[in-house]
Design goal:
Helices cover 40% and strands 24% of the residues. By secondary structure, it is an alpha+beta fold. It starts with a helix and ends with a helix.
C-alpha cells in the first residue's frame, strides 16, 4: 500500500522531533534501587528532570537547548553529593561507571561536545581529586599542631591550583574553537585580557553566538570592573511588580547594593541583617538587592520566601549579565556601598557571624555609617 503524503509528513516530523531530543542512558553501579537522580542546570539552579535508578540503570530524555550547555547529573547518597558534569545539547549519551568513580572517573560517550569536556576533565580531574582530598584532611585536623599542619596542606593546595590554571590555559589555547574552551575562557578572561578580543574574533559563528561566546561579548562590552573610589555605573531592572527602577533614582543617600541568588546559603543567612539595617538605618541608607538568578520564577520564589522590606531587582540576564560583570561579582553574596555622591566606598564578598554572634553585614554597615557621618 502506498503511503499518503500526510503520513510521510507526520513520520518526518516525528523523526525530526526525536532527533531534537536529548537522551541520557546510565549504567552506574553502587546505588540502591530507587535512588533519585536529577538533571540540573547549575546556572539557573533548576532541576530540568529527574528519574529513579533501578538495577544500576536509568534513563532521562526530553528537549534541551539549541546549543550545548553545562549540566550536572547528580544525586545524594550516604550523606554525600554524587555527580557528573556534562556539556551537551540534544544528544544521546551513555554514562558508565561506579559510585566511586564520580565525579571525574566516569566514562561518558556519544556527544562531540561531551568529548571536548571529557578531554579537559581527563587533565584536570586528578588535580581536583587530590585538592578535595587535601581540603578534607585540613578540615579534619585537630589539636595544638593543627594550625601548622593546615598551613602546610594549604601551601600544597595552592601549588595544585596553580598547576590547574596552567593546564586550563593550555587547553584553551590549543582547543579554542570548541564550546568547552570558550566556556573556560570566560572564567580565565583576566589571564587573556590583552588578547581576548582577538580570540573571540577567531571563533566560528556558531560558537560566537552561543551563550559561552556571548558572555565574552558582554565582558568586552562592559570593560574594566568598578573598584573602590569609582563612580557607580547605572543600571535598570524590574521589581516583583514589573516596575522599572534605575540605581541613579536613589542617589543622594548611601546605597547598600547586594548581589545575591535565591538558593545561595550565605545570602539567605544575611536576610535578617538586611532587615535590621532597613529598620535601624533606613533614613540614611537604601538597601537594594540585585538578583543574579537566571530564572524569573526562581527569583520570585526567593522574594516570596524572604519577604524583603527593601527593593529586590532582576534584569533577566543572570550572573553573566552586564551589571554583575561591571561590578566585579565573582560570588554571592557580594556587597557594595555607594556614598550619597555616587562613589563606591566599600566592597566585600560573603557573609558570616562575628565573635559576638552578630551578623558581619550589619556591623560593617554600622562602621561605615559611623565613619562617614
Amino acid at each position: 500500500m502506498k503511503r499518503t503524503l500526510l503520513s510521510v509528513v507526520i513520520s518526518s516530523l516525528a523523526l525530526l522531533a526525536s532527533a531534537q531530543q536529548y537522551e541520557i542512558r546510565a549504567n552506574i553501579t553502587g546505588f540502591s534501587n530507587g535512588t533519585k537522580f536529577y538533571l540540573l542546570d547549575p546556572e539557573l539552579n533548576t532541576n530540568i528532570d529527574s528519574t529513579l535508578i533501578q538495577n544500576n540503570h536509568f534513563l532521562i530524555k526530553g528537549r534541551l537547548y539549541d546549543t550545548p550547555k553545562s549540566l550536572w547529573v547528580m544525586t545524594q547518597a550516604d550523606g554525600h553529593y554524587r555527580y557528573v558534569t556534562l556539556l551537551i545539547g540534544n544528544d544521546t549519551i551513555d554514562i558508565k561507571g561506579d559510585i566511586k568513580d564520580m565525579p571525574y572517573g566516569m566514562i561518558i560517550t556519544g556527544s562531540k561536545t561531551q568529548d571536548e569536556h571529557n578531554l579537559l576533565i581527563s587533565q584536570t580531574g586528578p588535580l581536583y581529586k587530590k585538592r578535595n582530598e587535601l581540603v578534607e584532611q585540613a578540615r579534619a585536623l585537630k589539636g595544638d599542631s593543627a594550625q601548622i599542619k593546615s598551613k602546610v596542606i594549604w601551601k600544597t593546595i595552592g601549588k595544585i591550583d596553580s598547576t590547574t590554571t596552567v593546564v586550563i590555559k593550555d587547553f584553551i589555547i590549543h582547543n579554542l574553537n570548541t564550546y568547552e574552551a570558550v566556556a573556560e575562557l570566560f572564567f580565565m578572561k583576566g589571564t587573556f585580557k590583552d588578547s581576548l578580543q582577538q580570540m573571540y574574533n577567531s571563533l566560528k559563528p556558531e560558537i560566537k553566538q552561543s551563550p559561552f561566546g556571548q558572555r565574552i561579548v558582554t565582558y568586552l562590552k562592559v570593560g574594566d570592573k568598578l573598584k573602590i573610589g569609582d563612580i557607580f555605573t547605572d543600571f535598570e531592572a524590574l521589581d516583583q511588580y514589573g516596575k522599572k527602577h534605575r540605581l541613579s533614582d536613589f542617589k543622594g543617600k548611601y546605597i547598600l547594593l547586594d548581589f545575591s541568588t535565591t538558593y545561595c546559603g550565605p545570602c539567605i543567612e544575611s536576610i535578617p541583617d538586611m532587615k535590621n539595617i532597613v529598620k535601624k538605618y533606613g533614613d540614611k541608607i537604601t538597601v537594594i538587592t540585585f538578583s543574579g538568578d537566571g530564572s524569573k520564577d526562581l527569583w520570585l520564589t526567593g522574594v516570596k520566601r524572604d519577604k524583603p522590606t527593601w527593593l529586590s531587582l532582576w534584569d533577566g540576564k543572570g550572573i553573566y549579565g552586564e551589571t554583575p560583570l561591571k561590578y566585579g561579582t565573582n560570588g554571592f553574596p557580594d556587597f557594595i556601598v555607594i556614598d550619597p555622591d555616587g562613589k563606591i566606598i566599600n566592597n566585600w564578598m560573603g557573609y558570616g557571624k562575628n565573635d559576638d554572634g552578630r551578623g558581619s553585614l550589619e556591623t560593617n554597615v554600622e562602621k561605615i555609617l559611623a565613619k562617614n557621618k
